[in-house]
Design a protein that fits this description.
The chain is mostly beta strands and 262 residues long. The chain is 0% helix and 70% strand. It is built from no helices and 15 strands. Strand 12 (199-214) and strand 13 form a beta hairpin.
């Protein structure tokens, strides 16, 4: 049973500069996975992320919106219904805040999907998720097709994530990915913004090339370079209506990460 337990710790640093605003994010995560029976497994991931925003070109009334925080815990449960069908469920309590933690900053995300193995190399996932990929919590369908091309390559096509992966040996993994991703943060009450803004909302579609290197038995390094399309940074009210648009424009993405896994 011990051989079926996995533990990992990771840290990632990412920068996303645009013409008007630079975004720099640091993320730390701890993950534990265990197969609790022949048909059931669980994974728990605790994460903290810090986003720093630099308004380079000019000062404004929003310059104090320069730091945001997120703490979230993702609990995943997987049940094998049959040799070809798996049921997957996750619940993600999260707090997203500027600097003052309050009950308003708490929300619950998650997903439910079914994985069906169509052949030895092909599977499909269909489900529904409450996610922030468009900058605020919303329910939306999820769909993906997984295809193992050969022992070195695999293909994932779907929404919100798609990826082509290639590994020429056990130490190197290359990936070309496209993902819709976003987040939101509750603003401190003392900001006294005159436009009824209560949250900061970010979203984009990211296309990136990633390289992961297994430097030794337990340590991995990850490098990422890509570009954000349709990047949006807005202030929204309690009904998720846009009240201010920063018009950031698009920009490139650079990231580096380190992971310990056993």
């Amino acid at each position: 049973m011990k051989a079926q337990e996995n533990f990992s710790v990771r840290m990632n640093v990412k920068t996303e500069p645009t013409d008007k605003i630079d975004f720099n994010e640091t993320n730390i995560g701890l993950s534990f996975n265990k197969k609790i029976s022949t048909k059931n497994s669980i994974t728990n991931t605790l994460e903290y992320s810090n986003l720093k925003v630099n308004y380079e070109l000019e000062s404004s009334a929003y310059d104090n919106l320069d730091r945001f925080n997120q703490i979230q815990n993702k609990f995943e449960f997987s049940h094998e219904i049959s040799n070809t069908t798996n049921l997957n469920f996750s619940i993600i309590p999260t707090v997203n805040f500027q600097s003052n933690l309050s009950a308003d900053a708490f929300s619950v995300l998650g997903n439910f999907d079914i994985k069906q193995q169509l052949s030895s190399n092909t599977s499909i996932n269909i489900g529904i998720a409450r996610t922030t990929v468009f900058g605020s919590p919303k329910f939306m369908p999820t769909l993906s097709l997984n295809y193992k091309v050969n022992e070195e390559s695999s293909l994932l096509i779907g929404f919100p994530d798609s990826k082509i992966s290639y590994s020429n040996n056990i130490r190197n993994k290359f990936s070309l990915s496209n993902s819709f991703n976003g987040n939101f943060y509750h603003l401190d009450a003392q900001n006294n913004l005159n436009n009824n803004a209560s949250k900061a909302s970010l979203s984009q579609m990211t296309s990136a090339l990633e390289y992961e290197r297994n430097v030794d038995k337990n340590w991995f390094l990850n490098f990422k370079a890509g570009y954000d399309f349709d990047k949006k940074y807005n202030l929204i009210d309690n009904s998720n209506h846009k009240v201010y648009d920063f018009n950031t424009g698009n920009g490139y993405v650079l990231g580096i990460g380190i992971k310990y896994k056993q």
